[in-house]
# Entry
Amino acid sequence: MQNTTRKAKLSEIFSSFQGEGLYTGERMTFIRFGTCSLGCRYCDTPQGICSQKNCRIEKPAGSGNFVRLENPFSSKRLNEILENFSDDTISITGGEPLEQSDFLLEWLPTLNSEKRVLLETNGLHDLSLQAILPFVNVVSMDVKLPSSTGRAAAWDEHARFLGKSMASGKETYVKMVVTSKTSDHDIESAIKLLTTVNKYIPTFIQPASRTLKFQDCVSAERLESVKRLCGAYLHDVKVQPQMHKQWGVL
# Structure
């Protein structure tokens, strides 16, 4: 019989404080999947855009020290590594985890059932989301604003994705990265998307962080205007930078 075991290409596994969204400040184990086909211009994890030969594993957990193990990883091998991480929550992030949804569908049912699973995703792969939703507790979805990302609009994909997440009853929140190039038209389109699905979805306006290749950040005045516009229609809106950048942690 043919071996159909799925394997994942990972970028890193580590323990740190969540720096974005509803659970900011909570320590959790991060599993960063090592592929993403989107390539947003403000991306702060370029190692997640392409497959990596090796994955770096924090050892011991929380130490900031790493060893490197060769990709790809089976479910069994990943679970053995996770035995060394005691955090209650596992953040599945990237890159884009749902681009490796076949592995997620095989691995997640084998994960310790006492772990809470937070999925961080670009909100484009609704069919993949639907398949793994039974094994996920929290969905953190990016609303990709084309004037921020430099990529094509994905409003229909976002609508399908967000609708399925909300219909499942899973805790869901969204993030919108803004830069000095972010247009009011895109903000208005995002508001239309969110009010159509549910205006009470917690919404985080995230100013883009500077990277070696990206310096197009946003002013405090512009953040205030974006928040004011969103707040006129949405019930729960906050401005929140990537706090792990502020804290100087992973």
Observations:
- The longest strand covers residues 10-17.
